[in-house]
Specification:
It is a single chain. By secondary structure, this protein is mainly alpha-helical. The chain has one domain: Biosynthetic peptidoglycan transglycosylase-like (Penicillin binding protein transpeptidase fold, Orthogonal Bundle), CATH 1.10.3810. Helix content is about 55%, strand content about 5%. Strands 1-3-2 form a three-stranded mixed beta sheet, covered by helices on one side. A hairpin with a 2-residue loop joins strand 2 and strand 3. Helix 5 (about 105-115) packs across helix 6 (about 120-140).
Amino acid sequence: MARLLWRLALAFVLVSVALVLLFRVVPLPGSMVMVERKVQSWVAREPLSIDYRWRGRSALSDTARIAVIAAEDQRFPRHSGFDFVEIRRALDTSGNGGRLRGASTLSQQTAKNVFLWSGRSWLRKGFEAWFTLLIELFWGKQRILDVYLNVAEWDRGVFGLEAAAQHYFGVPANELDGRQASLLAAILPSPLTRSAARPSASVEQRSRWIRRQMGNLGGTGYLEHLTQP
């Protein structure tokens, strides 16, 4: 039994490293979230068409790149996959009787979206930490952001910045302006219940806050802090 468990663990390590190395250079054919949404639609007997269009870095708006960083993970260029400042704040808030809030970085969200299933179990969090370490080691910040923008879910069946830009605004991803980019970033916490094309008052408010944060970070110049490749 011990030998079997050791072999399974070794196989998992080798396969996971191989996948991460492969996707360092190869466009992703999809993500586990897309698979999960398809399975859910089959179970519910509700047809779902996946709109997913991979785009390279040059076809992704720098404005959208900085908008997502401003909204989701402002210390993205500086941490190693885990934002311990936000984790500490979340724990302090929970310890003082507040609601435990999320502290996931863009790296963690990318690892989860690409390789794992949804849920809050400790097992899934452990796998998430493992894949986060791998993509930080082998991909680097630019690739992590590229993949995140390409696989993020923006509406039912709508995945990636290109599909989202076309879905909500009828423009390609590299032509998004500041307001459009901030609206897309504003709905990311709940993309299935919010709309960038018909934003609620709370989404409009959050998009304005994101634009202010984009300016505070220095605009698209902040992207120069991302390490290559």
